[in-house]
Structure formats: C-alpha cells, structure tokens
Design goal:
heterodimer; A: 135 residues; alpha/beta; Transcription Regulator spoIIAA; five-stranded mixed beta sheet; 5 helices; 16% strand; B: 290 residues; Globin-like; 2 domains
Amino acid sequence: MERIPILKMGPFLLVTIQVDLYDRLALNLENDLISMVSKTGARGVLIDISVVSIVDSFMGRILGNIASMSRIMDAETVVVGMQPAVAITLVELGLTLQGVHTALDVEKGMELLHDKIGLGLNSEQEEEGSDDSDE
Amino acid sequence: MNTTAQLLHDYKKNILENWMQNQLADAALRDDLISNDEMRRQSEELLEGLARAVSNGNVDNVYAPEFEQVTDILTDISITRARQGFSPRETGMYVLSLKQALYQVLEEKYKSQPEVLYKELLVINNLLDKLSMVTFDTYIKGREEVILRQNDEINEISTPVIRVWEGILALPIIGTLDSARTQIVMENLLQEIVNTGSSIAILDISGVPAVDSLVAQHLIKTVSATRLMGAECIISGIRAEIAQTIVHLGIDLSNIKTKATLASALQLAFSMRKVEVRKIASNNGFNQPR
C-alpha cells in the first residue's frame, strides 16, 4: 500500500507530499502522522505541498485535522509551498485552514517552527537570515 | 433577370455617382476618418455585390447564400467603422443614403409607369432596410468587441504588483473590486509572491471609491489566499468614510492588519522584516537636519 514518508528532523517531523492525494492516502497520512507525533514526541510538523496541484475540501479538512490533533499533542503544524491555484481553490471553497501556520518554502517554514516552539534562532543567524516571519 | 437586378446592372454608374454625392453632401461626413477614394472603392464593391446578389431574383432574404458577399462587405465596413470611432448614425446613414440614390434613378426611369415605380420602391425599400439592420447589428457587435477588449486591457493594467522592497510587495487597487477583478488581483499577487519569494504583501485600497460588503468579502478572500501561501497581508489606504462603512456594515477585519496609509503599512512591513530605515544626519549644509 502506498504511503507518504514521514521524516524526523530533530524535534520536527517533515512530510513532503509528492503525489496528488486521494482520500485513502490522506487518511493514512493523518493516522501515520499522529502516531509518529506521539511516538517521537515531536514539537512541530512541517508539511510541504509545493508539488500538489489539486486540492479538494476533503484534503483541506485533513490538513485542518492534522493541525488540531497536533496542537492537542503540543506540536505546531506548518504547511509550506502552497501553489497559487491551490490557495485560490481553498479560499473559494471557504476553507481558510484556521489554526494552520503557513510559509512560502521549507526554509521559512523551519524558521517559523523554531520561533513557534520558542527555540528561536540565535542572534547571529537572525541577522544574516532576513527572511524570518514575524509570527 | 428581374427589374431590380436589371436596374442595378444598367444604372450602376449613375447610382454610384448619386450615392457618392449623397454621402459627400451629408453634413456629418467624417472625411477625417475615411478618404473619398476609400469610400468610393467600398461603395463600388458593395454595389457590384448587390447587383450580383439580386440577379437570381432574391430581393427579400438577405441571409441567403447569394447575399453572403454583400453582408460580408457590410460587416467588414461597419466593424471597421465601429473601431474607427464612427457614430451609429453615421454608419447607418451609409446604407440609407444608397436608398436615396436608388430612388433618384428609379424616379427618372419609371416616371411614366407609376405602378412599376411603386412596386420597385417597395422592393428596394424592403431590401435596404434589411441591409441596414445587418449594418446596425454588426456595428453594435464591433463596438462590444472594442469594449470587451478595453475591459481586458484595463483589468490587465490596473492591477500591477510592485516590489517595493526585498520581500515586500505592494498592490495598489484602483477602481471597484468585482469578482472578476478580485480573481485577477489574487492570481497576479499570488504568482508574484511565488516568483519573488516575498513574505509581505501590502494591498492599498486608496483608489477604491467605495467598500461595500461584497468588496470587503473579496478583500478578505485575497488576504486569506495570501495567508495560505505563507505570506502576510496588510491592507492600507483605508479612508475615514471606508472605515465608517466597514463598521456600519458589521464587517469583521479584526484579524487582518490594516493601516491608514501606504507609508504606515510600509513602516509596519519594515518592522515585521526587521528592517530599519533611518535619516542620515549630514552636516554638508545642503541637507540640514531639522
């Protein structure tokens, strides 16, 4: 059965969705991800959807669910790399993914996660990397 | 060959002369837009086509295949004229002045046969009325094409996405936001965010004449889409009356960053990006610090 790999990177989990999600796959991802969070005690989840071109309301809800579940387990969720077309579709569907943080790319997503869980970037990194989000 | 066709064939020269005279005598003649030679060429072509079309005896149905050439010429003329800026009256008069020219010839030819004259007048009247309808139809179509094209161009031009700083985009919106324009604004903005990797977008609405609930909803949509992409959106240029309407309409913009002017939005964007802009103290005499 097809599965989406979940990578552990320090205190975070990294998921890169490389295929268009069908419902079964999305549900599996939700299950796997949540059990991974509990198993590893991850503090953050980063989901890269930069190559996903089709998104429906179901997928939007799954992302929302993942974020809510992770929050209960004390992990923040960041969705990165959403395509313009996908963003427009979600907005037209009325899904604004409340509670999900977003970033332009994986790099900015990582910075955001660091900020979120209070690790922060140390000062010299902060000065050279001028791309951090304010949140 | 029926009498009408015969007439058109035999008196082509006279008709053309009369017609040209009528056209030139018209006070509303736009010789600034079209030359006399050009007009004569058009008229001659049309007259020839007409003579050929009616030679089979069909003087009633202008949508029949034999009239194709005539309607093609007319379509061509009226669409060109619509683009050149002729008024509908001027375009309509083009065909109607042919009527006058034909009447003159008819009158002379059938002076002694009032019955034939009457019959012919009816036939020609009917035919030319239909042809002028064709002209009007295509004229309006031509105008609409022009309007549609202009609309597209306005939409294209009126939503520029400006890179004001490294990582900061500004999008001044001018004119009312309707659904179609929101779509274009959104697409342009999101695409530009991807292209430049900007994390802050400033939507400036000082050029939007009025904000009703629909416009506000469109703005909120744009902001939400920007957020989904992972960028922050600031709405600037909110005037007093707009603030009043927004509050009176009960629209909730509390989770959207709003600023009164583009300058203060830029200031906020700078502080979000941890950029500082300072005035440099100088003592060269030209640029005295206050």
